[in-house]
User: Fold these one by one.
Assistant:
Number 1:
Amino acid sequence: MADDALLFVLPERHPRLGAALSAVGELECAESPAVRGWLHAHGTPASSEHVRIVPAGAEVLIPEEAERLPVPLSEEETLRVEQACAPKSVTDMESELLNFRDTAQGYQSLVQRALTAGIPAPRIAQLTGLDPREIVQAAGD
């Protein structure tokens, strides 16, 4: 293993670059005392969206002011990081948007079914992320 990737803490209000550490699955290096100490020193949990990783050679993506830490990865881990950092194709993104539209179009009936089943509106809002006013509106439809 060599330094095959760079961890960094993404500054606030900065576009998301690289991949979230939590999105690439478990990495052996994430459990090392060096990485745990580095995260602790920055007061940032490994699950934070601000803890990002890029493969070696992608250092240009890291903002200058971002704190960085080189980390070793296995061959399989390197592949996962590279895949997580790869940009999605336009077709993939359009498919996600269509799936969202298809899901979102039926949310009113889902909310009505949940209310009928006895789930309180605040719990529906918590589970779905919907605005409570949308739930009231869906219940009235």
Number 2:
Amino acid sequence: MIIREYQSSDCKELVELFYNTIHAVNVRDYTKEQLDVWATGVVDLENWNKSLQEHYSIVVLDDKLIIGFGDIDKTGYLDRLFVHKDYQGKGVATIICNRLEKAAQEKIITHASITARPFFEKRGYKVIKEQYVKREGIELKNFLMEKK
């Protein structure tokens, strides 16, 4: 495995990984309708690239395939953490999270999906509140979580 910082040339592959992971992994906790509004397959690559460049963003590769990525901003907001469906449970998210947490100055905040909540809880994150996000009139449940 290779761990490196994000490069603009990664953006399209990360968007595809995001879409595929949500539709393959989060299917156990969300309906197809919810998955379709969460990851529509239509993304503004320019905005994603800008966001990933502004944050501390890392990718993990197995040979030349990106198998995971994550990012955290300067305030300690852990924005994205996604692992390829074929690499779930192999420590990739832990590797990414370890790097992101080291980059944080103080407390870390994230909005964890139902699927990701147990992973974050094992790392010492606490649920601050359960919340619902509306996308195209469809509610998605997630959890505001914090690690001090």
Number 3:
Amino acid sequence: MIIVDTALRQREAQDNPVRVGMIGAGFMGRGVANQIVNSVPGMRLVAVSNRTLAGAERAFLEAGLEPQVVESLAALEDAVRSGVPAITQDASLLCQSGQIDALIDVTGDVEYGAQITLEAIAYGKHLITLNAELDATVGPLLKRKADAAGVILTASDGDQPGVQMNLYRFVQSIGLRPLVCGNIKGLQDPYRTPSTQKAFAEKWGQNPYMVTSFADGTKISFEQAIVANGTGMTVERRGMRGSEFSGHVDELSKLYDVEMLRRLGGVVDYTVGSRPGPGVFVLATHDDPRQRHYLNLYKLGEGPLYSFYTPYHLCHFEVPLSVARAVLFRDAVLQPLGAPTVEVVATAKTDLRAGDTIDALGGYLSYGQCETAAITREQRLLPMGLAEGCVLKRDMLMDTVLTYADVTLPADRLAVRLRQEQDAMFTPLGASSG
């Protein structure tokens, strides 16, 4: 971050700001807009696209700017050159504009996110995504396409996956081997619904489905899956360990079998109720006894696992840092390494009946949980990112993991086609190539 803020101040002094377009203007998007407009020198939010113009307008108005509606590429580029904030319903204009250096995806929608990601790549735009749902579903394929186009496609600082990856990289940089990447939650109940979370969502001005995806474990599963795919780690078991532990995260270092972690190559996990929360942690080991002596002197204990943690995740506050990293340094926060190691699989939240249509993520009928990519492939389990709109072919009991054979997939869905392309491209690590 020290390098990033210095570089941004230089861009400000040169009157050459990084020009950013944002797609999606919900609760998180409005926070991102406010942050860039009012707190980030050397960067300009030049345009916002949203499926409703009122939402895009609100993002700029809350940041203190009066936007102009544009309906063509020429009008958008004229507005940017004139320093006038632009809003539009057509996200493709932002992808096509030569006046925009990078895009931010704040949609959280798998299908729409897939469409704009492909278009951004096609027009040579760096893309910073807060869309872990898309990343966990077809991220390895999209990363391969972005590499071929010479652009950066990356998850973001501030979101827990990005915070974990920053901590992971720090721990590696000082010579330790990370063996657990973890997330600290305050609540985990797979049976929560938009009805149970309605009051909380209204209190904070959020979408009840999005709030439910946090409460029922779907969101954390997507987030930990992309951490696994960015580090090569796996999961200890389906759904992760997910311990309820009210102590300090430092104490977690005594609860894992180090040899098991080594054999697995490290795991992603989460805890419920641990302190300090909400935050993230990395547990790591060191093979050098002399360095272990120093770590003990520095109050990290005798090992063999050492605890490192960040006691907060500041979400939209840190997103502009990711933009600067991509544009100014071609540094990605978090990307898949290659073949996936962990997937998120769709699971029945209640007893399902033949003919039921699965609703949106964080809905009434399904929740997501992590599984190894190898088992997902071998058992033909249904990726959670493809579940919305699927129609049940047969009755299914609550907590049953769905397979492709259990559902009829929606017709003409881009995300489905991309997933088929990804499955043909990669053999998941640990899976048989036969």
